[in-house]
Amino acid sequence: MKQKEEIQQSTTLSKSASALDIKMDNANDYLRSRGKTLINVEQVEPKIQHHRIDGSDQIIENTNKLKDNENQIKTSTLDDSINREEIKGKDNIKLVDLDISFNIPKFKFICNGTLCNEDQAKMIADLNLKKAKRKHIIMELLETEKSYVNRMKECLDTFYIPLKKYMKEEDLKIAFNCLPNIYKINVKLIQELNERKNNTSDLGVMKVADILNSFFTLNEVEQYYGEYIITGDSAVTYPFEIHGEEIKTLLSKWVDECKIPSNYLIEPVQRFPRYILLLESLIKATPTFTNEYIELQKVNEHIKEITKRIDEKKNNYISHQKQNYYKSYLPHPINFGTFIYEGSYY
Predict the structure, then answer these.
(1) Are 305 and 312 in contact (CB under 8 A)?
(2) Fewer beta carbons within 10 angstroms: which end of the chain, N or C?
(3) 0.70 exceeded by the pTM?
(4) 40 versus 150: which is more confidently predicted?
(5) Domain-wise residue ranges, the chain
């Protein structure tokens, strides 16, 4: 009777081993489809004897080994699937698309809600947080750009167009600098951003690096913003009141409506540094193993180069202005005559 029970237990053990073989084969097939096999069946497969096993203790021991090895397969599959993205990011093996990096459900499916360790849970939480921050920054970029363009349009409609009737072209150039040109290029920028927004279901994964790169690599951006920032003081502090009575009447009307030209004309000077701050915040909220992160870094470096060149030109402009200002206060050099010959006359 005892011998019969041992044979039945041995048969059950063999069936369990066969079932485990199938599970391990399925696991390896899954991993091979991902391009890498991490589980070697021979390393975890127990040595099962298909003949009569003497003693029930040996049967129980081998059964426990089967359970441990099955758990080992599950854990290895889980760890490799979740850590694969981290490995790619650190070693720069392969950059992934932005929307793929935020595909959180695949992590939840692998973890099954219970098998996620502390590092893996932290990674998922970090991706969720970055996605939320990215959405907020993209919304801020869209809203502030829209407001900025609308303010420039209001400035041109309220001040520039009416003043064209009473001011010379060169005076308008000094008063408004190249604001009309800046308005034109920024209208194109907000149009492209809105078009991208309308074609994106989730702002958290909306790509903007290509749009910003196209904008800041335009020669007109450095030319117009550079000119405006360098000579911006002349526009902000322009004395409109020195002109005729018609302009003074317009100024009084604008003051009653709480519309001061200088409040509008200062905005391009403030907007350019704002682009840098928004871009740096967007970079921090973008996963480092994505193509979008690399492209945003390139845009950021390009803007820094533009800013550096504009600052150098502005410093030179200020130095030149100071020289011209103090030059009138310098005494005239004494005229000692014309040099003819070095040496004595005798």
Answers:
(1) no
(2) C
(3) no
(4) 150
(5) 2-94, 129-327
